[in-house]
Specification:
heterodimer; A: mainly alpha; two-stranded antiparallel sheet; 11 helices; B: mainly alpha; Ammonium transporter fold; about 0% strand
């Protein structure tokens, strides 16, 4: 693990990153998380909360926004401290930073949105070990300037929130006949209970991954070799995974 | 020169998937006729809807993923028939169609089509429907009445709930012939046995799984209850017969070795009785077959013979 950074410097991708102008970089990073590197559907990170809490659209939004808040703040903080934190203890350091912001988020939700807090239960404090946040700290914030890292956090958070909300809405509609608690089907069709049970989560998740891969492929960015590789190496999960092998 | 390395089996016979499936359909057909006689025209309608939507679903799915159509191998017809036989005759038709689509598209197609599915499509679709619509899936029409919504108790509920107090209302002959409330194709033990014997004689299925499945169910029920009559009834009613003969013997999702088949059948029988007696569901055949489907890759790892070079 400790010689990760050395090997990274030899990669051709690293040089490309510095050449691209700043403005395009920000724009690219901002939209990256929505589809191209959607943390749930394309990087397949944070699957546990995704499957567990998306029994309703409201839960999805609540979880997504809480994670977005933590992503932005921890990305900014980790990036600020990236030159100070020694390589060997960087994971505990990142976790400490993330845990601080999660505690903050949890207190805010508990105080102002007790209903959401009750619905999310243990999954709210578990954002600490959410792999999206640690992965972005490790892959992006540790190598990029603070503002860009915060934008990356926002982008990833939006992708996460969007996915969770769509999944929650689909499962809520089919499994309970409502969206955001408002009755849509009006009892015209009996709800399919399985959709709000764990198997339904896996069904919707699998189908959404398929759809997102299809859309990404159509946009002229074919999925190369491994799912999730869009030929753009900067801050990409797959490059990092290969280095760690 | 090009050398091709194909997967086993290397010896290919004249028999094609189409012929095997045709034999299965021939064995299944009498059950549909009996179901129509017992539960009325509505049962035939459910069967037709299931088969049609399975075939159309497979055709459209193949179109969507741009693969050659596989409806000619008749496997979709078999899936549709088996699913219909596992539904009560009063089920809303759209639920029947939905079940077929789940079986053919989600359970079979998305895993790579026939031969790649890890679980039996009809069984899995039935379980999904059972979990989704528990009341609709357990409202049975009494035999020989053509009213569609009246629900009637099936004797299988008595087996699960009250060990020892079973009997009286149903004679063994009625249970054997299929004259009791249940799913469309599961009631007549006689016709299922005939179909099974036909398939064994045609060498389509091996008798090991059905015999060990049914035998274990009987023995285990007898051990738990000590009631001979009840143990016979445990085998005759509910889905054990249909499941053991037609669903557990699915080539793709059951072990290939004889020892593996025995383990599969015994395991399915034990799980069935455990769910019936200690679970909160009235019937456990579907879940037992699905669970054993999932165990199949593990069972396949047991070698049927010790390789001689590994003895030391």
């Amino acid at each position: 693990m400790s010689n990760d950074k050395k090997t990274n410097k030899n990669l051709p991708c690293e040089n490309k990153e510095q050449k691209t102008s700043k403005a395009t970089n920000y724009k690219k990073v901002l939209f990256n998380g929505i589809l191209n590197e959607n943390p749930v559907l394309r990087l397949v990170l944070g699957t546990c909360p995704t499957l567990a809490i998306t029994t309703s659209a409201m839960n999805g939004i609540g979880m997504g926004l809480a994670a977005t808040f933590v992503l932005i703040c921890s990305g900014f903080m980790v990036s600020l401290l990236r030159k100070i934190i020694p390589d060997k203890v960087r994971i505990p350091a990142y976790i400490t930073i993330i845990a601080g912001f999660v505690t903050l988020a949890q207190m805010i939700v508990k105080a102002y949105l007790p209903a959401i807090d009750a619905a999310l239960g243990i999954y709210l404090p578990l954002i600490v070990v959410n792999c999206i946040i640690l992965a972005r700290a490790e892959m992006f914030a540790a190598k990029n300037p603070p503002l860009l890292s915060a934008v990356d956090g926002l982008s990833m958070g939006l992708g996460f929130t969007l996915t969770l909300t769509v999944m929650g809405a689909v499962r809520e509609l089919l499994g309970a006949g409502t969206i955001f608690g408002v009755s849509v089907l009006n009892g015209a069709l009996p709800p399919m209970l399985i959709m709000i049970l764990p198997p339904g989560g896996f069904f919707v998740f699998g189908i959404l991954v398929t759809v997102s891969n299809k859309i990404a492929a159509k946009k002229g960015k074919p999925v190369k070799n491994k799912a999730g590789c869009d030929g753009n190496c900067e801050g990409c999960a797959l490059k990092e995974a290969e280095n760690n092998d | 020169m090009k050398l091709y390395a194909n997967n086993s089996p290397h010896i290919s016979g004249k028999e094609k998937t189409h012929d095997i499936m045709l034999d299965v359909i021939i064995a299944l057909a009498p059950l549909g006729i009996a179901g129509t006689i017992f539960f009325g025209f509505r049962a035939l309608l459910v069967i037709a809807v299931c088969v049609a939507s399975a075939v159309i679903g497979e055709y459209l799915f193949n179109k969507a993923i741009k693969k050659e159509t596989t409806i000619k191998d008749l496997s979709a017809v078999v899936t549709g028939l088996l699913l219909a036989y596992n539904l009560p005759s009063a089920i809303p038709l759209w639920i029947a169609a939905l079940g077929s689509l789940i079986a053919v598209v989600i359970v079979k197609g998305m895993f790579g089509g026939l031969g790649q599915n890890f679980a039996n499509p009809a069984i899995t679709a039935r379980i999904i429907l059972m979990v989704s619509f528990p009341t609709l899936m357990s409202s049975f029409t009494p035999v020989f009445s053509n009213t569609t919504v009246v629900s009637s108790a099936t004797p299988i509920k008595e087996i699960g709930l009250t060990y020892g107090s079973f009997g009286g209302e149903y004679s063994m002959l009625r249970l054997f012939l299929g004259d009791y409330a249940g799913c469309i194709g599961e009631t007549s033990a006689l016709l299922i046995l005939l179909g099974g014997i036909y398939l064994v004689l045609r060498k389509v299925i091996s008798p090991i799984i059905p015999l060990s499945f049914i035998g274990t169910t009987f023995l285990f029920t007898f051990i738990l209850s000590g009631n001979f009559k009840l143990s016979v009834a445990a085998v005759l009613c509910g889905g054990v017969m249909l499941g053991a003969v037609f669903m557990a013997t699915d080539y793709v999702t059951s072990p290939t070795s004889n020892l593996g088949k025995l383990i599969f059948g015994v395991g399915a029988g034990i799980i069935t009785v455990l769910i019936r007696s200690f679970g909160n569901l009235p019937e456990g055949v579907s879940y037992s077959i699905l669970l054993m489907n999932l165990f199949t890759p593990l069972i396949e790892k047991i070698p049927s013979r010790k390789p001689f070079f590994e003895e030391a």
